[in-house]
Design a protein that fits this description.
The complex is a heterodimer of chains A (148) and B (775). Chain A is an all-alpha fold and 148 residues long. Chain A has one domain. Chain B has 34 helices and eight strands. Chain B has an eight-stranded mixed sheet with strand order 4-3-5-1-6-7-2-8. In chain B, α10 links the parallel β3 and β4. The chains are: A mainly alpha (148), B alpha/beta (775). The interface between A and B is medium-sized, with 20 and 31 residues. Chain B: Pathway: Glycolipid biosynthesis; glycosylphosphatidylinositol-anchor biosynthesis. Chain B: It is found in: Endoplasmic reticulum membrane. Chain B: Pfam families: Phosphodiest, PIGO_PIGG. Chain B: This is GPI ethanolamine phosphate transferase 2.
Chain lengths: 148, 775
Amino acid sequence: MGLWAVLRAIWFVIVGIPIFYVVAVLFGAPLLSELYETLTFAIALSCLVFFPLGLTFTSYDQLGRLVFENRPDTKRQLVAQRIAFGSVLGAWGGAAVIPLDWDRPWQIWPTPCVAGGVIGAFLGLLLAIFALRCGPLTFSKRQKWKIV
Amino acid sequence: MILQKTGRATCDNFTQSSDTSKNNTVFAPNERTGGLTSLEEMLFYSLAGLVQLVALLIFAFGFFPSKSPIPGFATHESQKIDGEAQSLSLDCVEKISYDKPLIDQLVIVVIDALRSDYLFDEETPMTFIRSLVESGNRLAFNAHVQSPTVTMPRIKAFTSGTVPAFLDIVLNLASSGFSEDSIIAQLQKNNQRIAFYGDETWLQLFPNTFLQRSEGTVSFFVKDYTEVDDNVTRHLDHELKHWNSWDVMILHYLGLDHIGHSLGPKSTVLPGKLREMDSIVRKIYDSLTENNRSFGMVILGDHGMTDGGSHGGSSDQETLVPLVFLSPQMSAASVFIDGKRVEQIDMVPTVSGLLGLPIPQNNLGAMLVDVLSAFTRPQQLHEQLSDLMLVHANAVQISKVYESRFGSEMSDQLDQLTRRSGAILDAYCRQGSLPEGEPVSALIAGYLSMIQKMQGRLLVSFANYDMHLIYIGLGMSLMVTLSLVLRLLYKYYRQETHQWPSFSTAILWVGLALHAISLFASSFVEEEHQIWYWLLPSYLILFGFQQTGKLLVHGKVEQSESSKNDIVKLLIVLVLHRVLRAWNQTGDKWAHLPDIGDWLNQPSHKNELVFLGIGSITLITLMLLHRDRHRLRISHFLCVTGLVLVAFAHFSFDRTVLCVRVIWLIAAACAFAFGRRLWALAMWTALLMKPHNLPLLCGVVIQGRLLSSLDIHPLALYFALAAAFFYTGNSNSLASLDVGAGYYGLAQYHPVPVGLQMLISTYAGPLLLFCVSMT
């Protein structure tokens, strides 16, 4: 994992920003009127999701297997994948507090989603550590779950 | 299995996952249905549906409590301290009798949707009403009103002193005469002359009452907030000049409510409207002061408004309204600058007392003694005794209501108080003074605390639900749900291979559970659209992600083409969804935010509105034609004519009765003579939509076409239907119901067509989406 891996990860993050911006808008974020807020969310999520994936990247085929079929080749890839999935799930779930009528400042977009993403990433990391410490590792075999 | 149509997709999708789907497509019929024949299966589901419906009905009966008012009208005799039983000399009682009015004239000014902070805020534009505090000519209360905060039930409440039932909302549309005892009925029985100007609802509630002079203003055109009030005010000069010709004048101003509905409570025209109301009050007050008749004024709001500008619910903003008594004859000891908290129905016995009328039979209000004692009367002692008799009348009257509801638990206390006040009256009549150690004020306080106790229990009981029926209904519903879930699990268990549902299917079930859980929080009920606007894209994006994965990982040639197609279609549906959800802001918290609908409704964007409206009707026509392209018949000519007429109805005929009825005829012909039911539905929904919502229908039709061609789970269609319900600006609040849509093509009120058209226009989005995606 050298300099190139870091540069590739940064490149991944930059590509990821518009993707998450579009996703946020599709979920209801204003198109342009809250540009900074939505951009903050997109940058944060892109960092949480694409930076670990970029760091452990080996090939696009492997990335596809890792993301869609839950088949990591190395321990690092497993950790990266759990962090990425955790942060997406966290950001998704964080949105749930926005409509509540508590009128707290942290309920305003994008705070709960960014916070949810960070918490989700942390939980993903914990899960990964737990899996690596306790679970029997079965790399590149049929996994218990997968997306496709 | 990939290109399976949604409409025909079965619950087996639950157990599908892409690589096993090929092997699983051929089920033995036995396994498919889990041991039941298809007839038995159908019976099972029909029965479940039927029981669910019955459960809902039982629940509704428990949830909407009925009330049984005491029939007939109150008289003074029934509410007096019984002179003979107390062996009092009758003419003495006559002398201090409370049935002599304290004022000769009363003006009631109802300002629709006047909420508390509009008057009690320090920077209120209503400066005249506020300035009367210093002279003691004003008594202001912060009155609490009961739900539903809708005009018609509220008028019933503050004229009769009762709590409106929730079912009154249904009657709100059909407001027929109000036959219960009320202030108005009592005024009429006692030959008082009433002049009325304002909301037409009053004329429907009390027909043949305001014979002398009256004019109703219709409250359907919410966009009008000047003329609707000018039509009331223009009669004022005449009435004030002929002040001798009426005893009670009622004015009901709708403009403020209309501003709330169309521009929101923070609108810049709102302070001007408040100033206008204030100047009208001042005009009446000043003009009547010059005459030599004593008079009083009551100024009240019938309900408040939310920050979204609507009303109907039970938030503080909707349920707290000012209740102000003004009179030059008043010299209030305490002024309650910020308003003492009372019930709005308390005004009923108070007004009855001021006018010397019997208190309406079913009244639950408690006499506002502060108001009575603020009116100066010649003899101090006399005055106190008169107050005592008024409070006694109130107590007797309310204890009858209490008795009819709970049995006679309070009668002991009342008897004791009656005996004590009888003794006081007796002493006063014989010796001209009060007995030692029995202050009248203590007795009044005793009565009041008793009245308030009864009022508290009665108010709760009228707002109460029949918990038994609710539990039975909920229990039945739960049993049906459980048996369906068990059936599903059993079917799953009977299958040979057990597969986890795919990720996108799983999120549907999780989403369904999350939605059910969310309904336990009131803000998620108010903002239910947010749940669906969150779940639908979640599913669609995950489904698209899955299709992308298939394309990348499996990469089979024959699959890739359809996957690519699917992804493009999903993207279109997603973008459409994003646009449609921005069309009408709904819910409670963000309902006031500007949206595309508001933009289109601005007068300066008239051209865009017409262009978009006609464009979307054209597009709907083309899409429906494209759908029927293989079996075009002559009858399609009629269908197209119908839709073209709808466009004309919207933009050149203003949907007049004749025009709407012609379209009804064409739609009926299309549906029943030629079997083109989808065309008929499109015509009818497009006809009833507000013009700015026509593009919504077009978007929903596109969504339906695209979704039906995708291999999505049936539950996903349900998500889309739920979202489509909210696109048109619907919410779980009654306030978002478009009442006006029911009346197109009708000259007067008929319950069936009005109800049917309101149903069609409310559910236009999901109806059209469902029918398009199913056929």
